[in-house]
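Appendix C reproduces, verbatim, an entry submitted by the partner laboratory led by Prof. M.T., so that reviewers can inspect both the input and the predicted structure.
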Amino acid sequence: MSNDYKINIVHRDEYGRPSGIVALNKPKDITSHDLVNALRKKLNTKKVGHAGALDVFADGVMIYLIGKATKLSDKLMHLDKEYTTQVIFGIATNTQDPEGDITEVKTGYNLDDMGDINSILMDFKGEYDQYVSLYSSVKVDGKKLRVIMRDNNYDKHIEIDDNNRKRIVFTPKSETSHLKSFTLQLPSKKVKIFDIELLEKGEIGVDEMGEFKKKLTSFPKSQKFPYIKIRVNSSKGTYIRQLAEDIGEKLNMPAMLINLTRTRVGNTSLNDCMSLEEVN
């Protein structure tokens, strides 16, 4: 991981201050910062950071930096990452994952209706211009996009401008009609997909969707949606949930992630990770 630090070894200096790099297997349903706080308590230090967060619904490799190792954050953030994820077609949420509100549902389709999945996945291999995820921490006009998107004073929708670029239109709700409408250009950036592989495909029933099924109570438990499971090796800054939506667009289908596991950061894999209980 670094010339100066070996993974999962924390040293203390003559004053008892810890330094090191720890790889943890983040469980689902906790935040990346929850583990920062836990490590601070466990190691009795405030100087703990990480080299790239994971969403609450996601699990997998998280690199935590302690003490003097926090200086390596920028360097480690630039490492490539590998994920496995399950993409469901026919459902979209505003956050592109199970945490959001459902915005679109399309039923009555299966993977055979959608063409050659492998060929479509290969279209993404290499460099491509990816819009940032709507609920990301990317700043637009000085504010984080996810904060702007969570402003309940406005209705929001995406439209394509004259330059064939996406923009977000914010329209005041009836109860906040004194506010002005405005638009924001949706930022994009070049990302690179080093490898993408289809691992599995099939259909998933509403009853198999964990906590997310609570948002699908209007559908019978027998309702099924097509899905694919893929492995993605990508550059820093790639939004896997945006990739899922982009794959869906190629298929003319709404799409979202139902789960996400980060299996590798640089050379550090799940096999190298500790649980929080193992840190001492």
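The first strand starts at residue 9 and ends at 12. Additional entries are available on request from the coordinating office.
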